[in-house]
Amino acid sequence: MIAPPPSPNRLRLSSEALVSNWRWLVRQSGSAACGAAVKADGYGLGAVEVVARLAAAGCRDFFVATWGEAWALGALPEGCSLSVLHGIRPEDMELAAQLPYRPVLNTIRQVALWRSIGRPCDVMVDTGINRLGLSVADVTGGALDGLQIDTLMSHLASADEETDQNMIQLAAFQSLRGRTTAKRMSLANSAGICLGADFAFDLTRPGLALYGGIPRAEAKGAIQQVAFPEAQIIQRRALNPDDKVGYNATFTADRSMDVAILNLGYADGYLRCFSGKGSASGGQLPVIGRVSMDLIAVDISSAPELEEGEWIGVDYDLPQTSSLSGLSQYELLTGLGARYDRIWA
Ligand SMILES: *Cc1c(COP(=O)(O)O)cnc(C)c1O
């Protein structure tokens, strides 16, 4: 069988930026080890490639959401461990018994299910997010007695904000020191790492900031963009004054213009909120009219040299693109979709 041609859109991915971001998070984590959340296929960038690069840099602790994601990672690099954040269901047991990974147990039923396997696990304690985890009272009441725990975790609800909730969750988690068999404790995600040494405990769990997201002002200037979407020009066309562009004719030319139609659209995560707002080539080429499923139009009147087949970088600085679009930095990454060729440099 003949191989498919390269895709007309691609994500350029920087290994150097990824590793540099992780190293910054390592330094901010102080004496705590710094792991990496690689759920949702490494926040859309490609979990296998992310794990390989971070493991080579010295990262040892990885986190996915489900056993399906654990399976999809294949064999991990030597010396690495993997935790499955959503715990364990009866339908996961057959795979979980065979893979050397740890579930992060969240409920009393999950604890009971895992006891039959008899291997170490991690445990999530809910200290106020009311999402996943056992309660503090469950833990102090003995629900984990006799369980071999590697890492006791909790998760911050509002680490990206200045709010009392951070200190309240910190105090609740600190109160569990020495109350279980856990070898390590872990609380901080990317934003939590920025809150300072008290939040680091023994292991930190950044995701967003690894991939170029800025969780809090402390990370500005330190965290670098990792993912750069690019799309090919499928057609270059000339517009006359009064010509309309795209679905529902939301753009009308007020002069003669040149437009490039790029192979990128909402099915690639470039959502309709970028209509008339997005830009390419570092702000030089505005997106005009509506974003289609597979196509956008950009004004290239200022770039007479751009021809069909050429590649254009679509602006995707995460904090900036987030405030422009109203999408979170997380959504901007995880929405990127399957149609890009992901090209690591
Ligand atoms: C996703 C996740 C993380 C990583 O969070 P970021 O905000 O992306 O740094 C850490 N811990 C848990 C439990 C998570 O679900």
Write the layout of secondary structure elements.
Layout: E1 9-13, H1 15-28, E2 33-34, E3 36-37, H2 39-43, H3 47-57, E4 61-64, H4 67-73, E5 81-84, H5 93-98, E6 102-105, H6 108-115, E7 121-126, E8 134-135, H7 136-140, E9 149-153, H8 164-174, E10 184-186, H9 190-194, E11 203-204, E12 227-239, E13 244-245, E14 251-252, E15 257-262, E16 279-280, E17 285-288, E18 296-299, E19 311-313, H10 318-325, H11 329-334, E20 341-344
Parallel strand pairs: 1-20, 2-11, 3-4, 4-5, 5-6, 6-7, 7-8, 7-9, 9-10
Antiparallel strand pairs: 1-12, 12-15, 12-19, 13-14, 15-18, 16-17, 17-18
This protein binds pyridoxal-5'-phosphate.
The site of pyridoxal-5'-phosphate has 11 residues, from helix 9.
Concise description?
By secondary structure, the protein is an alpha/beta fold.
